[in-house]
Request: fold
Amino acid sequence: MPTIFIKDDLRASVEAASGGRVTVLYDDKGYPSFMHVFPRFNVQDINASLGTGTHEAFVVNGVEKSEIFIGQYLASVRGSRALSLPGMVPDRNLNFDSALTYCKDKGPGWHLMTNAEWAAVALWSWKNGFQPRGNTDYGRAYDLKYESGRRIDKAAPGVTTGYPATLTGSGPVSWRHDNSVSGISDLVGNVWEWVGGLRLQNGEIQVLQNNNAADNTKSQADGSAEWKAVLLSDGSLVEPGTAGTAKYDGATGTSGAPQLDDVLDYPAASCSVSFQGLAADSGITPPGILMRLLLFPHVTTGLIGGMYINNSSEQLPFRGGNWYRGSGAGLFALSLSSVRSGVHSAVGFRPAFVI
Reply:
C-alpha cells in the first residue's frame, strides 16, 4: 500500500467522524492533509444543458476516476509543501507557478485544485440546493453578518483595518460546500484561490483536456502544447488560434460587461459582470463544455458570484472571491485578470489529489 494511505490513528479517527467523507492523506515528507472525498457523477443528472456522461473532473489522461480528493482547507505551506489543515493561516502572496509547485512537490497525484474540479464541486452543490457563504465582509458573511470566523489579526468581525482573513475552517458549517462539518471549507470568500488547467490567452479561452491538469507531470507553462482552445461550433478542443474558438470580449467596449464571442472586437477589454449575467454575442450558442467548466452559466438565475476578465496577454484564474468582495464572491465567482507572475495579498490556493 502506498505510504500516502497510512492507516494511522489520525486517519482512522477522521474517517470515523465523517463517515468516510473526509480522509487524511500524506505527502512525500509525511505531512498530513485533510481531504474531502468527492465521488464521480454524470453531468445529465445535474442539468440537461450540460450534456451527458462523466464530468471532466473525473477523467485524467483518458482514465475515469471513481473519486477525487479535494483539500478540505485552504493551503498552508510547511516545508515547501501545501498542506490542508484546520485552524491555520492560509498562505497567500504567491504567484500561480509557486502554487503549482507547492502542490506538485508533494508527490505523484498531488496537484493544485483545478478549474474542472472546482466546477464539479460548484455544480454538485447547486444541484443539491446549497451554495456556501463565507468570509466576504472582513471576517463575516456580508449577507448574514452574525456568521463569522476567527480573524488572523484577532480583530472583531467587520473591522476594515488590519488583516481580515480567517483561520482555515473556523467559520460555521454554512461556509462549507455541503452545509456540513465534513464539507470543503472557505471556497467562498476569505481569499481568492488560484486554480489550474485554465487561462485566457489574448482573450481566447484555453484549457487542458478533461482534468489532465490533475496530472502534475503535465506542463501548464505559458508555451506548453497541453493548452487547447474550445471550438464554439461543437465544443471540441483544438489548437489555440484556430478560427471560431471561444473568447471573452467586451460587449460594447473595453469596459462594462464581458461577453462570450468568437472574435475580439475589443482586445484590451477589462470588464466585469455577475457570472449568471454573462451573455453570448448574437448567433453564438455556447457548447456544453463551457457550462460544465463554469465558463458560461447553465441557468440565468441563482448562480452566486461575479466574473472579472482582462483579455490582453495571458491571464490566469482565481475562483471564489475574498474577504471584501461582498456579493461579488460566490461559488461561481471567476477572475481571469491576473498575469502568471501576479502576487496578491488576498489570493491563496488549495491542494487536491487523484490516484
